Amino acid sequence: YCALSGGELFDRILDRGVYSEKDASKVIQQVLQAVGYLHQSGVVHRDLKPENILYYSQDEDSKIMISDFGLSKMVDNGIMSTACGTPGYVAPEVLAQKPYSKAVDCWSIGVITYILLCGYPPFYEETESRLFSKIMKAQYEFDSPFWDDISESAKDFIRNMMQKNPSMRFTTEQALRHPWIIGKTARSQDIYYSVSVQIQKNFAKSKWKQAFNAAVAINHMKKLQLAHMGATPRPTSVPNIKVTEVPSPTHQRKRQVQQERQEHQDRQEQQEPTRAETNGTCSHMTLPSFPHLSQSESKSPAPFLKTTQSHHTPTIAEQGKTVFFSEPANLNGFVHLCLRLWT
């Protein structure tokens, strides 16, 4: 294990102030090199997503690290069948309950590339069934105006990485030879504003909101514990948590406006309980059982695919659509490529 101080991928992008296709290409190139090394070693990650891409240090030229090997697997014959991964990043063949290979990692890299160039995911729907249906059909678009300034070479790279047929999908070796990856066709035009706005809408959560939600959850658990013990809970109040963030001069005004909008939205949300608070349960989606599981994998239940519904939808999906994305990864146990992998 090692301590990484560079932070997550999205945070680094938001702090840059300037961002282009070339920057995204360099990130994906490093990811491809790392995943290619895994594949050569017989390891499939199976849960690649932006939250699992970290920077080693705060240096401008810091290298990229892949983390969270909780779902990774050592493969002998290259074929797996256990349904696992994160909705939005999982490959069509996994959702179709078919045997799959290391090509699922390349699909996920294609999804990550898509997000890095526009700030929102290629697949978003209001229900899990519709979301998974779109993924299984590989049904996504390069929406205008968000993709108008993105090169055709970048779009071609994504199409090859997100091929529905895994046998036609790029391998890491093929992807590393693509012109967009080797730097010949990636544009230098600044796309920071459009990408950063969408990332903050769809993925970023303000620190003060996270702290508030944590305080509410702690008090709720205390009340449940007292009720279970037969005691009368005493009135409790949410601690006055103050989180101070010092933005860079470039982003100060923009973040102030975004925070005011966020506070207004949160006040509206707090007026009515969420579905999870009303029912007291969380909703998980479990795929059907797999009759074709191998003997070794069928000993334990197939991991469910968990979805988290975002309160921030991308501009293109404001007409009644909801973004689905993964819960933040538990980074307490991230693993360097050279360290022991879970089998």
From TrEMBL:
Residues 257-275 have a biased composition (Basic and acidic residues). It comes from the Eukaryota. InterPro entries: Kinase-like_dom_sf (IPR011009), Prot_kinase_dom (IPR000719), Ser/Thr_kinase_AS (IPR008271). The keyword DNA damage does not apply. Transmembrane segments: none annotated. Residues 1-181 form the Protein kinase domain. Residues 230-310 are annotated as: Disordered. The keyword Transferase applies. Keywords: ATP-binding, Kinase, Nucleotide-binding, Serine/threonine-protein kinase, Transferase. GO terms for molecular function: ATP binding; protein serine/threonine kinase activity. Residues 276-299 have a biased composition (Polar residues). SUPFAM superfamilies: Protein kinase-like (PK-like). SMART domains: S_TKc. This is Protein kinase domain-containing protein. It comes from Periophthalmus magnuspinnatus.
